[in-house]
# Entry
Amino acid sequence: MIEYDEQDKRMVLKLVYYGPALSGKTTNLLRLHDLLAKEGRGDLMVLDTKDDRTIFFDLLPFFLTAPSGLKIKLKVYTVPGQVKHDATRKAVLQRADGVAFIADSQLSEVANNASSFENLERNLSFVGIGIDVIPLVIQYNKRDLAGIVPEDDVMRVWGKTGLPVLMASALQGWGVVETFRKLVELTYDHIDRKYGLNSNHGLDRETFLVKLTQASEGEE
Ligand SMILES: Nc1nc2c(ncn2[C@@H]2O[C@H](COP(=O)(O)OP(=O)(O)OP(=O)(O)O)[C@@H](O)[C@H]2O)c(=O)[nH]1
Ligand SMILES: [Mg+2]
# Structure
């Protein structure tokens, strides 16, 4: 549910990284912050944590201006994965324009992934967003570990949903930008259909993607 002010030429978009506790949502944002160019992105806010676990949310903002002068702010949030923080998850999910579901690839986490995804379905419905409508990508994180669900099994389960599924190791820094790029792509298409980003604002998909996912120089 895009915040769009035609008069002011401003648009605020919200992407949410969702998933079970300790799946690597905060680590995804830390890596995005390191891997993406400074130009066009703000600072990462990691809010109150307890033992490195998110209590409220983390936020990484991006800014870009379309040729029409439309100013777009893209806010990327994480939710706290611990079951007890459900009220906060609902609050963060309000008015979301896209979701990345970060699953933990470890065999021991299969049940937690499933219940977190059910929780996402329930909470999206609670905040009035259709899970079939909102841009949604799935990331299987922690691929660097032993004792993980094989990729074939992941695809067998998720393939039939038609959702994009990406493998990643946020710890090692791979699959993270790819996941973000996929979500940004889907979100662009979703907004373009409604607001004509290309036709009304001269902002094509490629430019949108490039501006938001430029690699930072020097470090990898
Ligand atoms: N081995 C491995 N560890 C990871 C990976 N991603 C994250 N971790 C570790 O998993 C732990 C939890 O990561 P966080 O990013 O804090 O997890 P979170 O999903 O934000 O957790 P909550 O805030 O409690 O919901 C940390 O110790 C990370 O270093 C990964 O790809 N591989
Ligand atoms: Mg976190």
Notes: The helical segments are 25-35, 86-93, 110-126, 151-158, 176-195, 197-201, 205-213.
